[in-house]
Amino acid sequence: MQLPASSRPDQNWLRAFMFTIFGTTALVISYFPLYYKEIGFSSAQIGYLYAVGPLISMFSNMIWSYTSDKYRTIKRIMNILIIGQLVTMLVLWQVSSFGVVLITISLFYFFYYPVYPLADTMAIQTAQRYGRSFTVIRVFGSLGYAFFALAIGYAVGAAGASATLAIGIGIGVFTLLCSFLLRDGVATKSEPVELSALLKILRSKEILWFFGCSFCLAIAHRMNEAFLTLTLSGLGAGEGLIGWSLMISAASEIPIFFLLSKYGDKMKELPLLGFASLMFALRFLLMSLASDPLSVLAVQSLHSITFGVFYVTAVRYITRIIPWQYRATGMALFIIFWSSASGLLSGAFGGLLFEAAGRTAFYLLAAFLAFVAFVGFLYRHLFAKPEDMNISGISA
Questions:
Q1: Which CATH number does the domain housing residue 279 bear?
Q2: Which three-class secondary structure state does DSSP give residue 132?
Q3: Which structural domain range is residue 173 located in?
Q4: Please, which residues have CB within 8 angstroms of residue 15's CB and are 6 or more apart in sequence?
Q5: Rounded to an integer, what distance in angstroms lies between the CA atom of residue 196 and that of residue 17?
Q6: CB 66 within 8 A of CB 330
Q7: 3-state DSSP call for residue 312?
Q8: Is 118 domain-assigned?
Q9: How do residues 182-212 score in pLDDT, each as one tens digit?
């Protein structure tokens, strides 16, 4: 029997936490590049600053998530991570030379990236505790991203890009307060978390195939993410219009999340992942053809059937194929492929490609990579052998 909403404040505080951490995401992904441009960095330098975060997070995600699984606490780890973000943003606010900014932002990313797989893991646990779908909690992240993307756009338009970090610190303070009010992950009498068992999981064909296809798609997604605001700025869009673009993409996820929470379990994951990848390819093809900011705004509405479908389905897939005692680590591995390694490549080489070949070639490459992911997921769905679908004999 489910508890009434009034008797489950932990779920409500988690929703508030999701709302605010995705406000930080909107700031970091979409407005940090404008801040870097404001203090005089080139597109290539901005690409390097974007790339260093994923490089750092390849290690920090695993360190913090494995620690969370080992010591069976998510809340305390997230408290530490949010405090670390606040301290490094305060330092970043005071510096402007490229070398110092590079070092400081590296420290910031060490605390920034691991929050998201841990928050998703806590959302999965909380949803299971109340017999709800993960998406009814995760949707508040989309609401937060939509709200803050628009609000920050107008705030930056009024105060200038130099106010970006002050806004980030304000969001971070509220996020920290929410993090102290969260209920920690469920303590269980599970088997001990062992590195050898984790490595056995990673060698399974199912995991390798999923991460390989996700990685191709992620490179394309991160290319767009890193240079969307610069694309809009280059087409003559102001900060307010940039905020609307980000709000449209985030808000478009919300109905998809609710539809998938109601009907998603009735559909197989691999065909859904393939469909999302094909729609990503179409989205980036249209981005290569867009010639004005309003066209980009229209293309952004496809975010619902690209990222919205892919992310929810991927999380469901991970929770099915990875044993539950390794769930935080499994989510961290997904984030490493989806965000870290792909962000490293797209940031390091995307900036150079964007400068040298132009926006059209940049987005055509993204469309091709998304199409490769579509072919991979479709092939896996049609031709995988039943024995390959077992995670090396480790039961969930």
A1: 1.20.1250.20
A2: coil
A3: 11-389
A4: 137, 140
A5: 34
A6: no
A7: helix
A8: yes
A9: 988 644 445 555 666 666 766 777 888 888 8
